[in-house]
Write a structure and sequence with these properties.
The chain is mainly α. It has a single domain, classed as Multidrug-efflux Transporter Regulator, Chain: A, Domain 2, CATH 1.10.1660. The chain is 70% helix and 11% strand. It contains three helices and three strands, in the order βααββα. The protein has a three-stranded antiparallel beta sheet. A hairpin with a 2-residue loop joins β2 and β3. The longest helix has 51 residues. InterPro entries: DNA-bd_dom_put_sf, HTH_17. This is Helix-turn-helix domain-containing protein. It comes from Proteiniclasticum aestuarii.
Length: 99
């Protein structure tokens, strides 16, 4: 991806492809002023510096999302372990009753 950042301007389509963000999301971010671009005719173009900034922000967001997912899975894992331990206790009680 870094090898691609040598051109002067990138289209909305280019940015969508490189970032994985939908076209409408990129257009919305541009309209809100969250990303800087230059409108030429009906199309929006972004500088190499802006593309690099967006890709870095996207990488940070992806890392944060990944860490959040890991934490959620850890909590679910602990909950399942607690349920297993409770079931083991029930099984032990049932076994002692049957003996």
């Amino acid at each position: 991806m870094n090898n691609e950042i040598h051109r002067a301007l990138y289209s909305t389509e280019d940015l969508s492809e490189m970032s994985g963000l939908p076209l409408e999301t990129i257009r919305g971010l541009y309209r809100k002023g969250e990303i800087a671009g230059q409108k030429i005719g009906k199309r929006i173009f972004f500088s190499a510096d802006e593309v690099q900034r967006i890709l870095q922000v996207d990488d940070k967001s992806a890392r944060y999302k990944h860490l959040t997912e890991i934490r959620t899975l850890e909590i679910e894992n602990q909950s399942l372990r607690n349920q297993i331990n409770a079931l083991k206790g029930i099984l032990a009680s049932a076994s002692s009753i049957l003996e």
